[in-house]
Amino acid sequence: MIPVCEPTLKGNELKYVTDCIESNWISSQGKYIEKFEDEFSKFCETKHGIGCCNGTIAIHLALEALGIGKGDEVIIPSFTMIGTSNAVIYSQAKPVLIDSEPETWNIDVNKIEEKITKKTKAIMPVHTYGHPVDMKPLLEIAEKHDLKVIEDAAEAHGAEYKGKRIGSLSDVACFSFYANKIITTGEGGMLTTNNEEIAEKAKLLRNHAFGKLRFVHEELGFNYRMTNIQAAIGLAQMEKAEELVNKRIKNAQIYNSMLKEVKGIITPPKKEWAKNVYWMYGILIKKEFGMSAEKLREELLKEGIDSRAFFIPMHQQPVYQKKDERFPDISGKYPVADMLSKEGFYLPSSSSLTETQIKEITEKIKSIKKKLK
Ligand SMILES: Cc1ncc(COP(=O)(O)O)c(C=O)c1O
Questions:
Q1: Which fold has domain 13-98+105-238?
Q2: 106 CB within 6 A, ligand 1
């Protein structure tokens, strides 16, 4: 079986984790946390990195650090993973959904302004599957309406927009280090920012808002701390971060060259201003292919090739169909998100994937298509 994604843990991961165990530093203090935060923020070309439990928590922490909460609205794409939207709900703000654009599969920047109200406090673009959002026009809209921008960069480690690293472009960016991410800590998350005030606030809130006087708390904080063990894995990952990113890109190029002549397959987006890091190698299956995305996935599974369907957009989520004032309004139309969800899936995408495996996968796709004739 070729798995859809697995981590690459063949460096100093075991050595550093062993060090945590042998030295008894297994909670949220210890040398690896700051080291990992420093290395990751350097990688993102930002001044500050604030580690936490996971990517969803990173988004919640960012919202809290920016003072976004009850009565506020945050604009997000409907086509995303539910962590984006749920984190807004945890903050007591309301997610406002926007459709995607067909070219990049990201939030349609042209549709943002029509959803801005007096309650809107922030825009949260998601760099879907590793392709950056067109940030310039989005930042201009934010500036015009005095809105904060929080990037959901959970899937975009190492990606670049016009030569600038994702993580450094807005007020604050949020990353996930789940095991399928390009850089992993098992579970984990990080905020990156150039804003000292936001960084300090996030650090305070992630640790129960412990003040100068022990056990005296002036604010509602959280236990959102990262452990030394998570950071130990993260630091070892940072030693090969560029390599992990470059391997994703190289694999995508091999996939592209092998799939380019297959009628009915749309390969992942790549705008000239973007460094897409292809967190996942996603494809769309159009009518001309002769078989639905779902059926093709079933056939590939029979051949020992695992894959994953694209996200189910937020407006289709059963949980949000329930009448609950916390949930987003799902009454609009989101045709691009619907299309992506129906036609898209991702092929095996690990950084450790070999050219031989990619050949095997693409040959299987071609032979499944041939049999249809
Ligand atoms: C776009 C997006 N946002 C948020 C998250 C949440 O991250 P985590 O699973 O670490 O909580 C994910 C996770 O895959 C994601 O893809």
A1: Aspartate Aminotransferase; domain 2 (3.40.640)
A2: no
